[in-house]
């Protein structure tokens, strides 16, 4: 006879086992689980006493207030998440989200990778290549807002899986496209998935992690996505098209099909859905916001178990299932009103300005270097070296945001970005100065960018968090679309100093806007929006 524990009743029940040794082992394991469960319940009871004895300061507007049961549940959830801390479950979830975002960034760069092949084989003009890229980014704009909105309605896990599957399907359409119009359709499908994926992934990580680990997790997402994804995209393209492509056997399509394999191999993230759909839990914060307490308890128990697929999971009632929770009406316009409206204004100004500045130099680094007399090949090599600063900046940001307050961290990074852009304008004479000052700008701007990405999900409540992130992401893309033409005009009429001065001015906008946002360091998401 072996023994199992009913997690709800605390009863030990018998069941037959063919192997007595296995039965004895299961009995010991069950007893250990029971002891852990009882310890958790004792901690929860102690926390109830503390919460009941703690005076409540209610300085929120009537629309923000929740019934006492709801407030206690929210504060308890924050405490439980912080007590669970960071274990193997969180690290696997982080790795899954980074993996998806890494392929997102590679997928964004594929038009540039396959462009020359499309020109040679299909006679697509440069304008046609530009239209293909615009179709992708236009769809990303829609996907970010739509994906965030649906994520707040249907759940983080659901939309994470949907977006992964969607852009994988789009990549398959591109790989099999018989003509240019079908290729455009494929890129639109890809863009819709890409736009939603990063937004949902950012919200998922922010809600799945403890207060202490939240900033580190978001920072590592930026490292794995933009920091490593951009250089990996061109390395991937070089290997598939440049190295393997010329010798591709006929049964795989021959050399002319190498560009199709760039798209086909980017269907691999679809395999990730098979894992996440079965094992990754929904975020407890989202479930509680919808009043699904039993599911939130199960999700918390999975996270606490140190495994995403634990055997014989004992569900601990971290949150009493008889709590009365008021269901807040989700009004998407609330991110434009009151304190959330101010948060949106601050984040929008920071994101549009900084992303615009980064995209200007992403576009014009090689041109600036050629104008200084360097060969095109040399300018591209210099640009690659300069962009290593982005990886370093993202890594440093993930460390600093775990230890220092948000507003000073972003302000310092923005100020140093501004100074490094101006220093490049006036002091970049010679190869060493170009590489050092260019590296410093990418380092500081990515430090600022990753810090803003950490700040963003903290400035919205769970009910509209993903939608808010989507809107801010779109404002960043608008900045990236509008500033390069202005920068190009300045470069043509006034020279590189004017272009770099524009970049410095955009970084200064971030420095001015940041003090108007709230400080969030060291505070749980529930304290910031749903508790006191």
TrEMBL record:
It is found in: Cell membrane. It is a multi-pass membrane protein. The keyword Transmembrane applies. This is MFS transporter. It holds the Pfam family Sugar_tr. It comes from Kribbella jiaozuonensis. Residues 10-23 have a biased composition (Polar residues). GO terms for molecular function: carboxylic acid transmembrane transporter activity. Residues 1-23 are annotated as: Disordered. GO terms for cellular component: plasma membrane. The chain crosses the membrane at residues 92-115, 127-150, 162-178, 184-206, 218-245, 257-275, 345-368, 380-402, 433-452, 464-483, 489-514. Residues 93-521 form the Major facilitator superfamily (MFS) profile domain. Keywords: Membrane, Transmembrane, Transmembrane helix. It comes from the Bacteria.
């Amino acid at each position: 006879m072996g023994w199992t524990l009913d997690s709800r009743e605390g009863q030990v029940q018998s069941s037959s086992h063919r192997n007595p040794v296995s039965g004895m082992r299961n009995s010991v394991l069950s007893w250990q689980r029971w002891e852990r469960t009882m310890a958790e319940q004792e901690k929860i009871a102690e926390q109830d006493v503390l919460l009941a004895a703690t005076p409540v300061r209610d300085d929120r507007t009537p629309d923000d207030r929740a019934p006492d049961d709801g407030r206690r549940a929210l504060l308890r959830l924050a405490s439980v998440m912080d007590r669970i801390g960071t274990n193997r479950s969180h690290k696997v979830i982080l790795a899954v989200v980074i993996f998806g975002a890494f392929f997102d960034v590679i997928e964004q760069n594929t038009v540039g990778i396959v462009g020359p092949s499309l020109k040679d084989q299909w006679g697509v003009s440069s304008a046609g290549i530009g239209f293909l890229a615009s179709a992708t980014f236009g769809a990303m704009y829609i996907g970010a807002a739509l994906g965030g909105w649906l994520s707040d309605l249907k759940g983080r896990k659901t939309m994470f899986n949907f977006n992964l599957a969607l852009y994988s399907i789009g990549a398959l359409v591109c790989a099999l496209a018989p003509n240019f119009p079908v290729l455009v359709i494929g890129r639109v499908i890809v863009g819709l998935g890409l736009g939603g994926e990063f937004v949902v992934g950012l919200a998922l990580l922010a809600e799945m992690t403890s207060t202490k680990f939240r900033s580190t997790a978001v920072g590592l997402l930026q490292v794995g996505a933009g920091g490593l994804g951009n250089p990996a995209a061109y390395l991937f393209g070089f290997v598939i098209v440049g190295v393997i492509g010329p010798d591709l056997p006929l049964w795989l399509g021959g050399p002319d099909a190498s560009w199709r394999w760039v798209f086909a191999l980017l269907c691999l993230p679809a395999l990730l859905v098979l894992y996440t759909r079965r094992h990754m839990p929904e975020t407890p914060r989202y479930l509680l916001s919808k009043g699904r307490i039993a599911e939130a308890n199960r999700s918390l128990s999975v996270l606490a178990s140190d495994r995403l697929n634990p055997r014989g999971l004992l569900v601990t009632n971290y949150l009493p299932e008889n709590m009365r929770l008021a269901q807040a009406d989700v009004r998407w316009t609330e991110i434009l009103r009151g304190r959330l409206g101010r948060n949106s204004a601050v984040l929008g100004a920071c994101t549009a300005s900084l992303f615009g500045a980064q995209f200007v130099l992403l576009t014009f680094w090689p041109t600036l270097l050629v104008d200084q007399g360097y060969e095109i090949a040399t300018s591209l090599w210099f640009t690659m070296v300069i962009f290593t600063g982005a990886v370093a900046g993202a890594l440093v940001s993930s460390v600093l945001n775990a230890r220092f307050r948000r507003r000073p961290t972003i302000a310092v990074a923005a100020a140093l970005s501004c100074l490094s852009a101006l220093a490049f304008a006036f002091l970049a004479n010679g190869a060493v100065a170009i590489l050092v000052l260019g590296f410093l700008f990418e380092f500081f701007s990515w430090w600022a960018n990753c810090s803003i990405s950490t700040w963003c999900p903290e400035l919205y409540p769970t009910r509209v968090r993903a939608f808010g992130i989507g809107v801010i992401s779109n404002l960043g893309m608008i900045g990236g679309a509008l500033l390069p033409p202005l920068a190009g005009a300045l470069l043509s009429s006034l020279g590189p100093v004017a272009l770099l001065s524009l970049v410095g001015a955009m970084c200064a906008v971030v420095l001015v806007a940041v003090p108007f946002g709230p400080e969030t360091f060291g505070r749980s998401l529930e304290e910031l929006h749903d508790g006191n």
